[in-house]
Amino acid sequence: MDIRLIAIDLDGTLLNSELQITHHTIDVLNRVPSNVEMVICTGRTIVELPEELQYIPNIRYIITSNGAAVWNRQTKEKLSECALTSTEAITLMKGFQQFDVRMEVFMLGRILVEPYYYEHFEAYGGSQHTDFLKKTRTPKENVLQYVEELCEPVEKFNLFFKHEHERYTAIQQCIEAGYQVTTSFAHNVEVNAMCASKGRALQTLAEILGIHQQYVAAIGDQINDLSMLDYANYPIAMGNAVDEVKRVAVVETLTNREDGVAAAIEQYIIKGGKNEHLFF
């Protein structure tokens, strides 16, 4: 594979089940040749980035909130943005009030959540990593009023439902209204502006860097990774990926518990392996 740019998802991909980047993976990523650019491509926002990234300085770019923003990590410059307008965000938030849902508002580098839901993460699909959620979320009374007063763009909504039928209804309503809708967990829904996706953001970065699509790779595990895998000439699925991701991949690596990202990068970038040396 002739790869000049590789996009790497975080949760379920670069991060293991403890939400950490292992020492082995850090070592491998630091051995990536200087002519290969790496970009983190995540549904997370800036405040949620793992601390271990400080030990991988050659990752120079970050795509956050499912493609709502593209960042130069070294200069902290926002290279591209595709967010929901304040008016769109307010309309969506009023519509979400009909559901029993934990609504997280991604804006200005923070994640805002009503205090009740901040204290009840477990009831809305947050039982595994409560400490992480409390560390990265900001409780805010009357978030809707705050967004109305602030009148700033919103990068993304992350919604966690108690009831599957309400989740399904919300998905259909958002799609019909013309928004980008995806998911990264079995019980959540992520809503962005239609122009925001990991794939479009990756394409934007590739064009900024002057790297042709044929030299682009991407590695992921979930539904919200499909757009970047579709764009990449070399789509790589994690061993723990959902079936939809495995179907579009040309290569399947090991799981995130087995340093699958490191295995793929060693084989296909550092060693320059061919497609016939597959992991599955």
Write the layout of secondary structure elements.
Elements: E1 5-8, H1 10-14, H2 23-29, E2 37-41, E3 59-64, E4 69-72, E5 77-81, H3 86-96, E6 101-107, E7 110-113, H4 115-118, H5 130-136, E8 138-139, H6 143-150, E9 156-161, H7 164-176, E10 180-182, E11 188-192, H8 198-209, E12 216-220, H9 226-231, E13 234-237, H10 243-248, E14 251-252, H11 260-270
Parallel strand pairs: 1-2, 1-12, 2-3, 7-8, 12-13, 13-14
Antiparallel strand pairs: 3-4, 4-5, 6-7, 6-9, 9-11, 10-11
Largest sheet: 8 strands, mixed
Radius of gyration, in Å, reads 18 Å
Strand ordering within the main sheet: 5-4-3-2-1-12-13-14
Q: Please state the overall shape, judged from the principal axes of the Cα atoms.
A: globular
Describe the oligomeric state of these chains in a short phrase: single chain
Spans of at least 5 consecutive residues whose pLDDT stays below 50 are 275-280
What is the count of helical runs?
Answer: 11
The percentage of residues in β strands lies in: 15-25%
Q: What is the straight-line distance between the termini?
A: 17 Å
How much helical structure, as a percent, in the residues? 25-40%
- The count of strands amounts to 14
SSE topology string: EHHEEEEHEEHHEHEHEEHEHEHEH
Please identify the structural class as seen in this structure.
Answer: alpha/beta
Mean pLDDT: 94
Keywords:
single chain; eight-stranded mixed sheet; 280 residues; globular; alpha/beta; six-stranded mixed sheet
Overview of this structure, please?
- There is one protein chain.
- It is built from eleven helices and 14 strands.
- The protein is an alpha/beta fold and 280 residues long.
- The strands form two sheets. Strands 5-4-3-2-1-12-13-14 form an eight-stranded mixed beta sheet. It has a six-stranded mixed beta sheet with strand order 8-7-6-9-11-10, sandwiched between helices.
- Strand 3 and strand 4 (69-72) form a beta hairpin.
- Helix 2 packs parallel to helix 11 and helix 3 (86-96) packs antiparallel against helix 6 (143-150).
- It is globular, with a radius of gyration of 18 Å.
